[in-house]
Amino acid sequence: MRLYETHRAAAVIFLVYIAEAHPVDGWQTASNEEEGIRLRQHETFEARCAAARLCAARLGLGIPTLVDGMDDAAAEAFSAWPERIYIVGADGRIAFRGGPGPYEFDPDEASAALERLLMREGAPGRYSPR
Amino acid sequence: MIDPRDQTYIDAQTDPDLKQTVACALARYRRPDRLCVGDGVPPLELPRLDGTGSVRLDGFSPARPLTLIFGSYT
Hints:
By secondary structure, chain A is an alpha+beta fold. Chain A has helices at residues 2-7, 30-34, 45-59, 73-77, 107-121; strands spanning 12-17, 65-67, 84-88, 94-97. Chain A has 5 helices and 4 strands, in the order αβααβαββα. A two-stranded antiparallel ribbon of chain B has the order 1-2. In chain B, a hairpin with a 6-residue loop joins strand 1 (45-47) and strand 2. At the A-B interface, helix 1, strand 1, helix 3, strand 2 and helix 4 of A face helix 2 and strand 3 of B.
């Protein structure tokens, strides 16, 4: 994902793997069927991790990944299901809240917001990995 | 083509189980946001997929901005 490749040095970026949007035992889509994407909704944390690994492997993602618990606490707290992007500023507060996917999921918009935040909060060199 | 976010999309489903599933999914999709710009990050701790521990989402500032991309394969 370009957002990650562009900003990985200046920002901490995580993919947060949450409950499936279109599992085969739920609202399976024709496009997923055509692409051979057939995943059941996770019933265990291990199944969620397996789905996350499959996703990363098939899509060639190299983004550090966190996994939401089976209580969906992160997805619920951030109103993030089925997909969404948030950016947290250096003050620990939410600086950008993207729209809910798939219709309003816009990595380019998030990337531009992150660039503005980095410019506002200081030179990228100010930020250093912990 | 009917927008899946429209009630007409739900109404068009002929399978009762799928109709219920779609209705529940769209109800979840439409729930009001819990967080706004300017709010603090919830004190959640999530495990890393690679098994190297966990991350507190509210533990990154002020070192670098934190970007969270929520999603799934499907």
